[in-house]
Amino acid sequence: MVFNFRRIPFLFQYTITLLLIVTSSVLCYLTTDIIGYKAVALILLVVVSLLAMLFDILPVLLAALLSALIWNFFFIPPTFTFHITDGEDALLFLLYFLIASVNAVLTVKIRIAEKKARDKEEKENTIKLYDTLLNSLSHELRTPIAAILGAVEILKEKNVNVSEDVKNELLSEIDIAGNRLNRQVENLLNMSRLETGMLKLNLDWCDLNELMYSIIQKNTLQTQTHQFEFTENETLPLVKIDAGLVRQSIYNILYNAVQYTPKGSVIKIAIAIQDEKGIITISDNGKGFPEDEIPFLFDKFYRLPHTQSGGTGLGLSITKGFVEAHGGTITADNAPLGGAVFTISIPMETTFINNLKNE
Q1: What is the pTM of this model?
Q2: What is the strand order of the sheet 277-284 is part of?
Q3: What pLDDT sits at residue 358?
Q4: Is pLDDT at 153 greater than 50 in this prediction?
Q5: pLDDT tens-digit map of 288-312
Q6: Which of 160, 230, 211, 220 lies closest to 346 in space, CA to CA?
Q7: How far is CA 176 from CA 90, 148, 180, 342, in A?
Q8: Nearest-angstrom CA–CA distance, 83 and 219
Q9: Separation between Cα atoms, residue 168 and residue 27, nearest integer Å
Q10: How far is it, in rounded angstroms, from Cα 48 to Cα 57?
Q11: In this structure, which of 39, 241, 297, 351 has its CB flanked by the most CB atoms within 10 Å?
């Protein structure tokens, strides 16, 4: 979290201002014979500039005025008096006060202008993000709802004879559309949990091999169009993770792989334990990613350009949030021989079954 100095109470700002100016002046006074009184003006001007970058206008103007008076009284000959006998020193004093004051005002104004520009940019980005979300949801929700309503309407029609094959096809359409709706609602709820900090890990012992099989079974419809390859790793110990979050993370990646690869593509899943970390690799033999798009793959609402319509662009962002909630990392890259590769690395407490029984 970035600390906002402008939230410091005025009294505290004045106190810090006085302390910095007085402390700097004392240090300069002790070294005047070495640096000379004219160099003191530059040092005090730097202190005023630093204060201008942090505090509001009134404490900064106080710093400019106070530093000018201190420089005059303690450093400009004759010292310990506000009288200046040398014309060059008098001009230098006036220039110092003018530069310090103008610098203070301009620096504060620039900082305020930058803050307004950042706020405006953040507001515009937020509007763009929500426009993207609403546009995506208008398609993602309306399409399955229309499919469900259309299928139900046909099934309810009394004057139309519907064969068993047609009924099964309509029920399949309702099932697909229902799952699609459920997936979008889960994505929105999961993103809300991540953004509000309400996500809490439910750690428990898990068999990664069984977890992978259950995820592939959940992708029953996708296995009809794509080939999933997973070889069980019999040497794996049990691991302590939030199986629900890891399952959803991997499912999101597999779903994306199915969406963005041609029918008949091969999607491979590999798991291993290395250096007390679970390594899950998911690769496909599709076209891979445009190199310049890879840094944005895990951004909220991001979708690859020139791809088929549909999707809110939340899946990979949620996956990244779930993985990082475990203290892990996720990366995406292109495979040397073509296709995309996702690598998940999660610190995992491990135990073999014999050890677990003894607990």
Answers
A1: 0.54
A2: 227-230, 266-274, 277-284, 340-347, 329-334
A3: 43
A4: yes
A5: 888 888 888 888 777 776 555 455 6
A6: 211
A7: 85, 9, 6, 26
A8: 87
A9: 87
A10: 11
A11: 241
* Stretch 330-352: mean pLDDT: 90
Q: Which two tokens stand for residue 122?
A: 């953040």
Pair of tokens at residue 259? 């969406």
CA distance 146 to 150: 6
Residue with tokens 């999961």: 190
User: In the chain, pLDDT over 70 holds for what percent of residues?
Assistant: 82
3 state SS for the chain: CCCCHHHCCHHHHHHHHHHHHHHHHHHHHHCHHHHCHHHHHHHHHHHHHHHHHHCCHHHHHHHHHHHHHHHHHHHCCCCCCCCCCCHHHHHHHHHHHHHHHHHHHHHHHHHHHHHHHHHHHHHHHHHHHHHHHHHHHHHHHHHHHHHHHHHHHHHHCCCCCCCHHHHHHHHHHHHHHHHHHHHHHHHHHHHHHHHHCCCCCCCEEECHHHHHHHHHHHCHHHHCCCEEEECCCCCCCEEEECHHHHHHHHHHHHHHHHHCCCCCCEEEEEEEEECCEEEEEEEECCCCCCHHHHHHCCCCCCCCCCCCCCCCCCHHHHHHHHHHHCCCEEEEEECCCCCEEEEEEEECEEECHHHHHCC
Determine the distance from the C-alpha atom of residue 66 to the mean position of all C-alpha atoms in its chain, rounded to a whole number: 44
State residue 219 phi and psi, 5-degree precision: -95, 40
Mean pLDDT of 127-151: 67
